[in-house]
Amino acid sequence: MVSTTATATLFFALVGLANASPIETEHRQVKRCTATISSYTDVATAVASKCATVGDVVFTAAQWDGPMFIIDGESITFQGNGHQFDGQGGKLWDTFGSNTGGVTKPQFLKLKHSGTFSNLKVINSPRQVFSIGSNSAQLTVDSVSIDNSAGDKLASNGKPLAHNTDCFDVSATNVIIKNSRCINQDDCLALNSGSIQFLNNYCSGVDYLPGGHGISIGSIQTGKTVSGVTISGNTVVNSDNGLRIKTISGATSASVSDVTYSGNTVTSANNYGVIIQQDYENGSPTGIPTNGVSISNINFSGTNTVSAASGGQEVYVLCGE
Hints:
CATH class: Mainly Beta
Order of helices and strands: EEHHEEEEEEEEEEEEEEEEEEEEEEEE
Radius of gyration: 20 Å
Number of strands: 26
CATH topology: Pectate Lyase C-like
Distance between the termini: 52 Å
């Protein structure tokens, strides 16, 4: 169900859109329907069908930047009711992501609203799944499931088909993400600027090919600020890294501050359980840290349980002077 208490703009492919309140829907026979949307002009017809729920959605695979779904507005409640959005990434995956070549792949879901987004399953995202930014007030993402495990199938070159499939890319303040699941081939969380509470989430690669990159702050670029972060009660498994702060080598006029980690569990990290590095470059850290991004007041509170796989390292810190 999608409801608004203020003007909002929603662009998306859908099976139905609720026009009744939850109470009204429960006490009347629900009309079922199917709508096919090929362009924005088809949305009005789909909405006019007055279906009672948003159902399963299969997006068309096409080579463009996306995003494939946008919510933009204030005080919006999106309730997925356990339905599934399928991005059909398998038709576009080619071992390259969004920054390393290959065919152009669309970003999947962009949230620019305040309010809530909950109870949706996402599978087969072509690349990054949730992009969150520009919310005017608190946005809470609750109980969503992202499963890109099909993207771990190996290509002939031995690499996973899917790449750059971050579950949550955040550049916003006053964001809460909680009670959600992420199975992918990149960062579970990538906080690029702003503030967040990341609570009680499950982050994983897949069992036979650890490839998740864990919960990340960064990579922090020139001019970006992250401050006021709580990362608590999360579980990271089958991943290269667990808890990470990464700042771009040579970046300036940026900062990361007031971050608290508590009650998190990292199991058998393939590379690093906890990693803080100031030498980051995409895919190939320089090994020479720089000081243009200040890092301060990073707290590990209570109990955080971290283990590394054979050949991995529980803690790695490489900072400038």
